[in-house]
Amino acid sequence: RIQDKNDTGLFTDLSFDINEDIAAPYINNKSKPRIAILREQGVNGQLEMAAAYDRAGFDSIDVHMSDIISGDVSLDQFNALVACGGFSYGDVLGAGEGWAKSILFNDSARKQFEAFFLRENTLAMGVCNGCQMMSNIHELIPGTSHWPHFVRNASEQFEGRTSLVKIQDSRSVLLQGMAGSVFPIAIAHGEGRAEFSSKEAEQAALSSQHIAMQYVDNNGEVTQNYPSNPNGSPNGIAALCNEDGRFTIMMPHPERVFRAVTNSWRPDEWEEYSPTMRMFRNARHWLG
Q: Is this model's pTM higher than 0.90 or not?
């Protein structure tokens, strides 16, 4: 295609101080909140996720779904959980749905997850396959009737690239203080297109504070155009939260780029961390 001479390419426009550590007051606490770094067969993003939460002041614990199903690990032990991404079940079609069914159709696992989500002092995050999984167990998660399913990309292929996103003014605990910010983030998925049950459901999500992040073009405008919108999600939807903001799901991978040096492009003023580090620090700050 013809290059637009006015296209400035990737850029950042932040509404917060990237180098401020809002979790700093809790660093010296004797007890750290425990977070379950949850994975299933084939998931490969757990190490980056654990590293990000560890640096934010959490005690990150590796938890495989088999640990929960066998009863060796109970979610009662955790303040937070994150469902990680990266080729669960070999990334076959509907991989996240298969993961969800291992919870929904197992009485013990179902009760554990439902009890975790009903506790008012818990947080949860779902990324990529984990986003797809959590969207498919929304019946267990309070305040998620507006969540869509995530289906095959409009491009009909896996998309691995750097995309620009804009943080919206939502209730998401993870994205507090970040509204209005635009920055690049890693995406890597084959099934990231949000699909709502109806036009009314889509409009309800848009008219509330449940849309947490959207894909934007190089002018910072929400877009449907490929490849700025890598999967074809309506209204550029990249992340959503539940009604009270404790549970956030997203297709992009904040854990892959939380350090400045792991970004394929970054402004010179970024020091140790990128904007996505604020998400993990927000979680620590909320738990206190």
A: yes
